[in-house]
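Our example pasted here:


***
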Amino acid sequence: MHNQYNIPLFLIDEEPVAVSSEIVAGYFWREEEFCDIREIGETLDYFDDTKKFGCHGSRPTAIYGTRHIYTRRDPVETLVLWETLKEGIVYKVTGYAFERLNTGLISWGSLDMTERIFPLKHINSWHKMCKEELVTEPTLYQENYKM
């Protein structure tokens, strides 16, 4: 199954076998700053020490393993999370991704029940965002309806 951006959509138990045909964006929140996206992708929610990199803002790696960045598709939802938690940092990731239906609100899961997942090898760029920048990003609704 694909959406209008040719982003493959997988169920929670399906093995991802493809990524988007276009570069897409995703947003993720975390408690601490980091220097290298690979550092996050290799260790995010690693079960040996969940406090080392923070356990919020991501999905456990048990499903797809490490080397993936789990993001939200909508900057508005990300902003609401950020303002609710009153701390942390938001990053924007761009590259080729797949999406997965999320069957529960684990780890502050996505409200639309779909998360955008970037394999590390398909990430083109990433950067820290300020709130002023985040509010200028097109919402998921605007993206879907080309507003």
The beta strands are 9-10, 24-30, 68-71, 89-95, 98-101, 114-119, 123-129.
